[in-house]
Amino acid sequence: MSFQSQGLDRKGTSLQAVGNDSGPMPFKVFTQRDLDRIEPLARLPEAMRFEMRVVSTVLPFRVNKYVIDELIDWSNVPADPIFQLTFPQRGMLLPQHYDRIAALLAQGADKAQVEAAASEVRNELNPHPADQMEMNMPRDEAGRRLDGIQHKYRETVLFFPSQGQTCHSYCTFCFRWAQFIGDKDLKIASSEAETLHDYLRTHTEVSDLLVTGGDPMVMKSRHLAAYLEPLLHPDFDHVQTIRIGTKALSFWPYRFHSAEDSDDLMHLLERMVMAGKHVAIMAHYNHWKELDTPAARAAIRRVRSTGAVIRAQGPLIRHINDDAEVWAKMWKMQVRLGIVPYYMFVERDTGARNYFEVPLVRAWEIYRDAMKQVSGLARTARGPSMSASPGKVEIQGVTEVNGEKVLALRFIQGRNPDWVQRPFFARYDADATWLDHLEPAFAETEFFYEQEYRELRAERLDAAAEPD
Ligand SMILES: *Cc1c(COP(=O)(O)O)cnc(C)c1O
Fold first, then answer.
1. What whole-number distance in Å separates Cα of residue 467 and Cα of residue 144?
2. Is the per-residue pLDDT at 133 higher than 70?
């Protein structure tokens, strides 16, 4: 049953008229092949364009005209944060990887040879961090893996609809970068609404569905509706929250007010809210600039007018937002626009990690310096948080216990819910950038959760080793 057949006025009397100050803009996207056709890039030195060609041979690149024209300040390139967020930079590859691909391109090597080298380089990066494939994908009673579903924390199921596995632009630091290369084996996707619905029907412990990608907002509204409308049936009363992870509010705000099916999307959100679901748009933001255009503000107003809540999350990234002032300004702007700050993440083990990573201690300093500047309504942002395989681990701060300098940590989410909110301590390490670099404090041999985590992991990997 579609939402249109519910007798809702398509034009929607309850939706406020929306000003779209920038006028309609056709969606136009550029990839590696089109580097020479991006007009403001043509003004940059040829050497820089060559570097971009080299890096985008290995890592995915895609940017649209709105980002180019309205978000990037071309007078401040290459330092501009949105330029760093979307355009490949030489430092994103290790020198030996860069040199290998650059040499092939410079000598005009054929396509197959370049692709073979690029593929080898990618395999040396980390295409699927944190055991995502084996550790988080549930299996049915027959032991078959349920593609497109991840279920790591008891309350929340992640769903990756197959039509939503791309984005309006790609973030250079994306930890899901491998799925954009076209390697089918690495994709985490599903075309099966039925698989999702069957899973949710029988898993009554699940209160939250998080539709993610890629970006589910690249989907047609009717496809999104096909996944979400059935959840209004009483069989799914336990699913109280529907979250949609997206960067479209930043990269393509026109999705919400000037696409052919924008009204259908608004009606879908509104109908789910009216039916008693909490609808949360989990918006990915890295910088206040993404909130600061007329098109972005119109999109935010319109989504909020449906009764959906917008929550903001994003990683702390060197070259983009490793600055307390940027976070404070972003959180303040979010609160003013009615958006709830939710998470500050630590950049995880992604392809170009060496370029983007910020030490944990430094991340905490930035978080704290930003928090000090904002009111309580913006202090809803938790972090800095590492989405590691055992769970989401927050750095709570640096302190001293019995003369030993330590990092205080806690699980915000854990594979075992019982791990949550227990303080634990690591030896101070100013250079550590991830959980696995940390050592337990007080001469302990391991952290409190490690033995149990090893057992959980062995169980999962055993199950995975059985033939499908
Ligand atoms: C972050 C995350 C969730 C959601 O956790 P919340 O703390 O409820 O926002 C669910 N599943 C996975 C795999 C996650 O990383």
1. 9
2. no
